[in-house]
């Protein structure tokens, strides 16, 4: 570890010190929130406050030490942001548990289970950092990754539908898994590798239309294929959220890879055509759209209601946001039970809106925005095209999922049934999101590590020139964390295996 002294004087040490300070703040905020819930609802501190404090402290400590050991140069904001969102989710679920167990006989507490899934998610995150020392290794398995993703994407179609008619779960005995949460990561990996290989051909332009160069017809195959798969998911599984994220991530990554606005236009046009076709013919999607267009129609007499109105959750969500105002009613003083058990999953943002107000909602959305911004920032800093596109894909998947969930509960778009990342109840979602965090940490670590090595090698005082081998090179020779199994040219700007002419793009 001679080249990676974790002193604050080094870049790695300074980053980890910043991360440690932020994690202390995260633990303090979440513990304060847990204490506030108990005081507001019961007039006393929660009985499990000590256990919650120890759990959050251990998660922060173990996470910090793991990142310090296996990704010392990683972005110092990623882990604190993810843990803060997860901690807020635990506080909200603990608050909801008190209301539901008091008002409903069959209600069970979900916060302890969510805490267990948090431990599993953080453990998997650190395991990935320990095993995956170079994110470019994933580029070797992009087709295998896509094959597994397609199997997971198709499997729910053969499973029973949930309460609201969607098929998004795989049932394994008493357990259930939502594969769409893992598929969004797999498709980002596949699309990143695919676009690195085929970027030059997809960047070709054809005829000019309305001031834009449209792609040639023969190059429309990939986007048409992804569009068809998205529509099949929507028709056979009635999973609007996964369909939107699947297609949206591909269009965003395609635009970033080719820098052609025409792909965005084509993607929006195809999305509009697909939405109109499926929304006009598929009963489940048609009902979702009807409930979105007329959320208050549920309060009409049954004979006057338009078809498709199945619950009053959309209307109650709007009432919750309205009653919260700017600052909210206070944590623990709202009425989330009016929305039913959905307040624990895709409607958990309404609890934030009612009890913490518009200020609380904006704070939560700002945390997501910061996490997305860090993903885009690491994409700019990555030296290899695969890392650039993978970072963009992960950031886009997170941003799109937050948009479809927040947009659904606020009435901006139809409800999709997706879970709000990190906050909502669900083991599949939580573990998948921590896998995403692991990949973001690894990409940012590789990008910053290489930037630091380049800076040392170009600094005359560091022994560049005749003694350059003792600068950055010595770090790679003696540091066990240095990448040793990477494709040739992946960081140098020259195309490595399977990069097919991406060198010019990677050097920009």
What's a concise summary of this model?
The protein is mainly α and 508 residues long. The protein has helices spanning 11-42, 49-70, 78-103, 111-131, 142-154, 180-202, 221-237, 240-258, 261-281, 283-293, 313-324, 348-355, 357-381, 385-409, 427-458, 472-478, 503-506, and strands spanning 170-172, 175-177, 208-209, 212-213. It is built from 17 helices and four strands.
The tally of structural domains comes to 2
* Main sheet characteristics: 2 strands, antiparallel
The share of residues in extended strands comes to: under 5%
How many helices? 17
Taking pLDDT < 50 over at least 5 consecutive residues as the criterion, the unreliable ranges are 1-9, 463-508
- Shape descriptor reads globular
Order of helices and strands: HHHHHEEHEEHHHHHHHHHHH
Helix content: 55-70%
Q: Mean pLDDT, rounded to whole units?
A: 81
Order of strands, main sheet, comes to 1-2
Radius of gyration: 24 Å
Structural class: mainly alpha
For the secondary structure, the number of strands is 4
Question: What distance lies between the first and last C-alpha atoms, to the nearest angstrom?
Answer: 32 Å
């Amino acid at each position: 570890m001679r080249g990676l002294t974790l002193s604050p004087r080094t870049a790695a040490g300074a980053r980890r010190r910043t991360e440690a300070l932020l994690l202390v703040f995260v633990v303090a905020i979440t513990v304060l929130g847990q204490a506030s819930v108990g005081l507001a609802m019961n007039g006393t501190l929660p009985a499990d406050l000590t256990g919650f404090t120890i759990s959050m402290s251990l998660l922060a400590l173990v996470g910090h030490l793991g990142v310090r050991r296996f990704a010392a140069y990683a972005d110092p904001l990623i882990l604190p942001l993810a843990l803060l969102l997860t901690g807020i989710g635990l506080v909200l679920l603990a608050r909801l548990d008190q209301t539901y167990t008091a008002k409903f006989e069959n209600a069970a507490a979900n916060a302890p289970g969510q805490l267990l899934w948090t431990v599993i998610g953080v453990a998997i995150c650190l395991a990935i950092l320990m095993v995956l020392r170079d994110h470019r290794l994933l580029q070797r398995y992009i087709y295998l990754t896509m094959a597994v993703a397609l199997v997971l994407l198709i499997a729910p179609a053969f499973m029973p539908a949930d309460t609201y008619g969607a098929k998004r779960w795989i049932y394994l005995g008493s357990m259930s898994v939502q594969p769409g949460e893992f598929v969004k990561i797999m498709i980002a990996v596949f699309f990143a590798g695919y676009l690195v290989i085929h970027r030059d051909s997809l960047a070709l332009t054809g005829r000019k239309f309305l001031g834009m160069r449209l792609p040639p017809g023969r190059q429309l195959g990939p986007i048409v294929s992804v569009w068809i798969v998205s529509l099949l998911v929507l028709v056979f599984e009635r999973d609007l959220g996964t369909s939107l994220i699947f297609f949206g991530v591909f269009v965003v990554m395609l635009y970033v890879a080719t820098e052609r606005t025409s792909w965005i236009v084509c993607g929006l046009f195809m999305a509009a055509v697909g939405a109109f076709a499926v929304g006009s013919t598929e009963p489940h999607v048609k009902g979702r759209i009807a409930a979105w267009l007329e959320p208050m129609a549920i309060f009409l007499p049954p004979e006057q209601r338009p078809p498709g109105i199945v619950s009053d959750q959309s209307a109650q969500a709007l009432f919750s946001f309205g009653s919260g105002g700017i600052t909210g009613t206070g944590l623990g003083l709202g009425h989330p039970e009016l929305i039913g058990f959905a307040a624990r999953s895709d409607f958990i943002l309404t609890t934030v809106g009612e009890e913490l107000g518009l200020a609380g909602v904006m704070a939560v959305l700002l945390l997501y925005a910061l996490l997305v911004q860090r993903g885009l920032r690491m994409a700019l800093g990555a030296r290899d095209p695969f890392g650039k596109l993978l970072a963009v894909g992960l950031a886009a998947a997170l941003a799109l999922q937050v948009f479809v969930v927040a947009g659904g509960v606020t009435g901006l778009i139809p409800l999709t049934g997706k879970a709000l990342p990190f906050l909502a109840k669900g083991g599949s979602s939580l573990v998948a999101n921590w896998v995403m965090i692991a990949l973001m940490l690894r990409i940012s670590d590789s990008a910053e590590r290489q930037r630091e090595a380049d800076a040392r090698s170009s600094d005359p005082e560091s022994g560049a020139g005749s003694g350059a081998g003792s600068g950055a090179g010595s770090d790679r020779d003696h540091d066990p964390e240095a990448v040793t199994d990477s494709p040739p040219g992946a960081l140098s700007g020259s195309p490595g295996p399977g990069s097919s002419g991406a060198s010019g793009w990677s050097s920009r």
